[in-house]
Structure formats: C-alpha cells, structure tokens
Amino acid sequence: MLKNGWRKEIRRRKKQFNFLRFSYFLKFLLLAFLFCSYEVEVKEVVDGDTFITYSGERVRLIGIDTPEEGRFYYNDSKNALKDLILGKKVRLEFDIVKKDVYDRILAYVFYDTLFVNDYMLKNGYSYIYTFPPNLKYFSKFKKSLDLAIKNKRGMWKNFYEEKEIFIGDPEKMEFHSKDCKEVYKIGDFNRIIFKSSKEALLEGFHPHKSCNPVKFFE
Questions:
Q1: Cα dihedral sign for 62, 67, 73, 78?
Q2: What are the mean pLDDT values of the chain's consecutive 10-residue runs (218 residues total)?
C-alpha cells in the first residue's frame, strides 16, 4: 500500500512539474512575441520603403529598396505604400539587427494579414535589399521578385534586361556595371560575375545606387 501510494505521489508530482514547465514555456513564447513585435500607427510615408509613426519613430522596411526620388517608379512606389498603410495601425516584426546606422527601426511590416515588405516586391515596386544577419525572409523575397519580373508587374513592365557582364559584391549584396568606378574596391577573389542584370537581381543582389545598372524603358 505504501509503495502504491508513493507511486501515485510520484505521478502526481510529474504531472505538476510538466504543467509548470508547459506554463513557463507559454510565458516565454508570449514574452518573445511581445519583444519581437508591436503595433504602431503610421503618420507619414516618406517614400516606398520608409515611414514615420505618430510616436515619432522612423521605420525602414527590411529586405527591400524602392527607387530613389528622381528615379523611375519613385512616385508609384511611394503611393503604393501610402495606399497600404498611411493612417493605419501596422504590426512591426523584427530580425536580429533592429536599427540601422541612421537610427531607423528595421522591421517587417504587417497590415492585418498582409505582409507589406513582400507585397512591395511581389507587385513590382521594389528591389531586394537584404544584409546579413537580417535574412529571415530572404528566400521568400527572392521568389516574390522572380514572380514580379516574370509577370512584368509594376516597374518590371518597363525592364530592359542587359545581357552583359555585371560585377557582384557579396559582402554588400550589391552589383555594378562592369565599368562602374566602384568595382575596383571589390577584391578580385571576392567578385561574383553575372551575365545579365536579371541574373544578379534574382540572386538577391541590389543595384548599386551610383552606377545604377538596372535599366528601364520610360
């Protein structure tokens, strides 16, 4: 009888221990979620990949880069982001590095169930602009860009694919035209050779802003 009572007590304590362990696990998940994401309200859209919240935070969408002011499709990209999120509450999700050198918050942005960063890529408003260690959605972004280019969405309707040599810098994940003055800064053994601008884009490299190796019919 004593043995049976002791066995019952051991089983009871095991159940209690497992319940406590599960409770702590749930608390950990909740804290991780709260730490890794939160909601903000969008006050102003700066351009196609940056906005300002009502609390004054400047947020930069991770993993994408839209055309600069004065470049082809700048206004279209900015207006697309405005239509999606201006005046609305959005959820920010973070990766490893949470701020850039300009003190902007780096975030994956969600409006309801819509993944805004991915939407901008999939619909032809942006390039991939990903740097380690913020690579959470890198594979997804490459598939979305491939889909946008294949289906000639957004700016890719006017894309002119140049089939010549382009030089990639794997440390910065950017590529240059072969005559770009910045190419000499890339070590000979660190260069990646692409045979077209499209090949470089689909490998997740973004065009260097100075030499602007991606061409469009305007």
A1: positive
A2: 51 53 50 66 98 98 97 97 98 95 97 98 97 95 98 98 95 95 93 97 95 91
